[in-house]
Write a sequence for this structure.
């Protein structure tokens, strides 16, 4: 496979471009998407024109509602919501309409659409521009939830999301946009939804890390590796449907689980993973399951306070030590 | 439908009022200019939206509000705060993320709120203030306390469902709300013509059975006169009014925005709309004030801003480990 080098932002832009070239029913709508607040979609309008690449008024409810209706009538819209925090302004069309349409119509209608939205703290943007809301959507039957952490995954998963016949919530991370890595040029390259990736093999402890926590976990694995602790890192990549098999296999091997998400831990991704292991692999555990994430608080504007709540490498190291009984 | 609200000929203000309005506008202008510098120097961080060029609207509107009245504000909220009498020291401290700040460093630029002054907060969610205003309107009506809510929002926000729901509810319930649309012609990178097919947001009032008027929002006396009448009408229990102030956004959407999407000639010429220069010139021509008086005012403002910056800079950092505080009320 021929490889290029790109950032996550670039990989997302590539995936959109390729899928829009491939299928005339793929369109993109959102606020200021022709300019792109984080530059992700900047310039794409030049190729696709304003019929397919549409700036909308500030109307999140209408953006998602429009995508749902268009998806029900033959299109494959990608709708962008500028910050995950603003997903709260369009919860009805996501949760009651898109997610339930196939079911309510007895399979008559499908809603092949993607909602792209960046989250994550660390920019001093305050409580209403910093949240990571992945776990909210994991609990909504009918939705798929994807959360990539590398350029290659972002590209492969977004392409699959666009081709999927269900509504997919595609959660990006602002701080990860400029992480770079190898990305296949092949337009047929995709990564199936629902497959986790084992980013690093290890024997002592499994860290299941999501989105912004993945690079942090990789750094910690290096650090602990030097101390003789062998860490396995699994990135689920798709949070629903979750690749429980890969996760179970890993925990059965290491006997220890640390979960790492950036969002609030209460009812979070880690809670779901902990429940999964407690139910399905209890016998294999050699230590306590430890969750890393944001405590039950909001993100402050004051950056030191903000970083005190964002889970980081130190929190991960502490969690691993606790999991392996080296506290 | 009871009394009709009609926009009257604007009135000229006397010397004391003129100086007070000028000072307030200058405070907003210097506050924002200073902030732009502090942001460029990375002393202030986060997302900062400046209201340079838009000073007349919050100044003229808030001049008719008391400390008991309410305002709801937006992401571009420093002018509203200062207009409503906010303490620039506490505002600056908030922008420095300090404990002395209005929100003890938790909120920052997009969330500055001041309970004592009825400032229900700047807001990071476009359109959110509109629906909150129906609540302060409701409580004022229920408590029969004569308080008015001035609800600031932009042309862009008028496309949110919240605008339409709030306008309808306020009208049906005759809530004491002055909806103030600051139409600066832009919503982020989108010109108004691309996001709505009307020129005047005030025409939307018709659909909700409330009066809607548009004034030159860079003409402080026009804003001041219109608000005087509107607030008096609202206080009589006649229900809400939509007041649109046409103004100009001189800077980018956010501090640091290079604005490649804007017409450079238009930007070059934008200072011709300066609400401060226009007012000053008229006042001097009318001999209401002298150039020297204006200079004295500028010096006064300059020193107040300097003090505010020092106050902010010298403030105490919150203990980062204190992040559990205020999540829930006691
Ligand atoms: C619900 C929501 N959607 C989008 C945004 C991003 N955003 C912030 S300001 C803004 C433009 C607002 O335009 P307008 O209401 O005209 O106010 P102005 O910026 O001109 O003062 C947008 C789209 C947001 N903060 N909240």
């Amino acid at each position: 496979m021929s490889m290029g080098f790109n950032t996550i932002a670039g990989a997302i832009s590539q995936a959109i471009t390729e899928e829009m070239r491939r299928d005339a029913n793929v369109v993109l709508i959102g606020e200021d998407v022709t300019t792109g607040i984080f530059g992700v979609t900047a310039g794409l309008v030049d190729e696709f024109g304003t019929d397919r690449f549409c700036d909308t008024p500030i109307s999140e409810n209408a953006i998602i509602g429009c995508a749902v209706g268009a998806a029900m009538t033959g299109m494959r819209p990608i709708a962008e919501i500028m910050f995950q925090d603003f997903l709260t302004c369009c919860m009805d069309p996501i949760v009651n309409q898109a997610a339930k349409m196939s079911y309510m119509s007895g399979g008559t209608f499908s809603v092949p659409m993607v909602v792209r939205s960046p989250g994550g703290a660390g920019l001093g943007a305050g409580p209403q521009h910093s949240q990571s809301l992945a776990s909210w959507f994991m609990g909504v039957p009918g939705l798929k939830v994807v959360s990539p952490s590398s350029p290659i995954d972002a590209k492969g998963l977004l392409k699959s999301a666009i081709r999927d016949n269900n509504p997919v919530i595609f959660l990006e991370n602002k701080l990860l946009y400029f992480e770079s890595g190898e990305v296949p040029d092949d337009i047929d390259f995709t990564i199936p939804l629902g497959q986790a990736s084992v980013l690093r093999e290890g024997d002592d402890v499994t860290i299941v890390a999501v989105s912004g926590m993945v690079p942090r976990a990789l750094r910690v694995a290096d650090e602990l590796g030097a101390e003789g602790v062998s860490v396995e890192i699994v990135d689920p990549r798709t949070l629903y449907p979750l690749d429980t098999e890969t996760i179970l296999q890993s925990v059965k091997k290491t006997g220890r689980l640390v979960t790492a998400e950036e969002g609030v831990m209460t009812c979070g991704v880690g809670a779901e993973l902990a429940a999964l292991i407690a139910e399905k692999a209890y016998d294999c555990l050699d230590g306590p399951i430890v969750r890393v994430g944001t405590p039950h608080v909001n993100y402050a504007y004051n950056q030191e306070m903000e970083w005190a709540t964002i889970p980081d490498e130190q929190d991960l190291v502490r969690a691993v030590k606790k999991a392996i009984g080296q506290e | 439908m009871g009394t009709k609200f009609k926009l009257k000929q604007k009135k000229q203000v006397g010397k004391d009022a003129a100086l007070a309005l000028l000072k307030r506008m200058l405070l907003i202008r210097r506050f924002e200019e200073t902030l732009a510098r502090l942001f460029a120097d990375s002393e202030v961080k986060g997302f900062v939206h400046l209201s340079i060029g838009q000073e007349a609207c919050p100044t003229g509107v808030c001049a008719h509000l008391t400390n008991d009245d309410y305002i709801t504000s937006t992401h571009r909220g420093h002018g509203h705060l200062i207009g409503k009498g906010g303490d620039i020291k506490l505002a600056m401290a908030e922008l420095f993320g300090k404990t002395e700040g209005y929100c003890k460093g938790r909120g920052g630029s997009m969330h500055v709120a001041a309970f004592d002054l009825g400032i229900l907060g700047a807001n990071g969610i476009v359109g959110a203030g509109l629906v909150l205003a129906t609540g302060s309107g409701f409580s004022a009506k229920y408590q029969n306390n004569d308080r008015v809510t001035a609800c600031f929002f932009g042309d862009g926000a008028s496309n949110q469902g919240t605008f339409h729901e709030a306008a309808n509810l306020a009208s049906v319930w005759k809530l004491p709300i002055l909806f103030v649309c600051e139409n600066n012609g832009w919503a982020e990178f989108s010109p108004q013509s691309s996001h709505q097919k009307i020129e005047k947001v005030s025409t939307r009032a018709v659909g909700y059975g409330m009066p809607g008027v548009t004034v030159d929002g860079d003409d402080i006396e026009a804003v001041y006169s219109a608000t005087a009448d509107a607030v008096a009408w609202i206080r009589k229990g006649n229900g809400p009014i939509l007041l649109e102030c046409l103004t100009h956004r001189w800077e980018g959407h956010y501090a640091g925005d290079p604005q490649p999407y804007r017409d450079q000639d238009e930007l070059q010429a934008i200072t011709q709309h300066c609400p401060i220069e226009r007012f000053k010139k008229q006042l001097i021509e009318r001999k209401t004030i002298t150039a020297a008086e204006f200079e004295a005012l500028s010096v006064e403002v300059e020193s107040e801003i300097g003090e505010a910056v020092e106050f902010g800079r010298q403030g105490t950092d919150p203990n980062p480990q204190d992040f559990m505080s205020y999540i829930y009320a006691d």
Remarks:
- Residues 126 and 157 of chain B are 6 Å apart (CA to CA).
- The first strand of chain B starts at residue 70 and ends at 72.
- The mean pLDDT of chain B is 97.
- Chain B has one domain: 15-312.
